[in-house]
């Protein structure tokens, strides 16, 4: 992975020197050309294009924005309803993520989504304790986190 | 036209800030209130900051990266703060609302899987 970024950067710099026009936009054009070249040669170079990671990351951000809007409306409904019908509770969420970075990312995303809040970790980092403002069933909470955030994080960092 | 778009973003931000404030008053216990506080800071900050960014780019022809960076930094710091408050509240013995449906953490603490820090 570092070597292809290096290749990409050197193509961009070579492009900038060839066009003898030193500005950020020329560099950007060169960078895009480098990406296209890397894409053409990817079967010879024998590595996954690092750009797929960036696309996966953008996808994760989009999923997060969508989830956040939905959750915001849900929580607004709970707060503004005349009688508080919320059923808050703490759910133990088993995660498959291994590294500390992945777990940190997951718990940040969970906490940023309105209505859910990470409260504690187990010592082996395998269980997150998620305080949820409105629980229908434990399985539903776990399922919704698993299919959105955890899947996205696995795609970005694997 | 641009004024309308900017106003919509500012209004969305302000409305969610207001909702956050109402939630802090109405919700029953510490943990649901921490939830409400983090929510207000995320959506409210996004709304106001995007409105501000658009205002600068329309009215002053300035692309203000600082304003967008504000969103990023709030997003990095807000979950850490919320997590620390909730965790320390729980270990300090603040009870969760008596109408809460379940408390997995309590059971696991009993089994000494998660030892509280001293």
TrEMBL record, chain A:
Q: Which Pfam families match?
A: MNHE
Annotated Gene Ontology cellular components are:
plasma membrane
Q: How does it sit in the membrane?
A: Multi-pass membrane protein
Q: What molecular function terms (GO) are annotated for this protein? A: antiporter activity; monoatomic cation transmembrane transporter activity
Record-linked InterPro entries: Cation_antiport_E
User: What domain of life is recorded for the organism?
Assistant: Bacteria
Q: Does the keyword Transcription regulation apply?
A: no
Looking at the UniProt entry, the stretches that span the membrane are 12-40, 60-80
Q: What is its main location?
A: membrane
What are the alphabetically sorted keywords of the record?
A: Antiport, Cell membrane, Membrane, Transmembrane, Transmembrane helix, Transport
Asked if the record carries the keyword Transmembrane helix, the reply is yes
Cellular localization per UniProt: Cell membrane
* PANTHER family in alphabetical order: NA(+)/H(+) ANTIPORTER SUBUNIT E1, NA(+)_H(+) ANTIPORTER SUBUNIT E1
The similarity annotation says: Belongs to the CPA3 antiporters (TC 2.A.63) subunit E family.
Q: What name does UniProt use for this protein?
A: Multisubunit sodium/proton antiporter MrpE subunit
Q: Which organism is it from?
A: Paraliobacillus ryukyuensis
Q: Taxonomic classification, please? A: Bacteria, Bacillati, Bacillota, Bacilli, Bacillales
UniProtKB/TrEMBL annotation, chain B:
Main localization is membrane
Q: Which Pfam families match?
A: PhaG_MnhG_YufB (PF03334)
Name the UniProt key words of this record, in alphabetical order.
Answer: Antiport, Membrane, Transmembrane, Transmembrane helix, Transport
Q: Membrane topology type, per the record?
A: Multi-pass membrane protein
Q: Which residues cross the membrane?
A: 6-25, 37-56, 68-86
Q: Which InterPro entries match?
A: PhaG_MnhG_YufB
Answer whether the UniProt record assigns the keyword Protein biosynthesis to this protein.
Answer: no
Q: Does the keyword section mention Transmembrane helix?
A: yes
What is the annotated localization of this protein?
Membrane
Question: GO cellular component annotations, sorted alphabetically?
Answer: membrane
MF terms in GO: sodium:proton antiporter activity
Family according to the record: Belongs to the CPA3 antiporters (TC 2.A.63) subunit G family.
- Write the protein's name: Multisubunit sodium/proton antiporter MrpG subunit
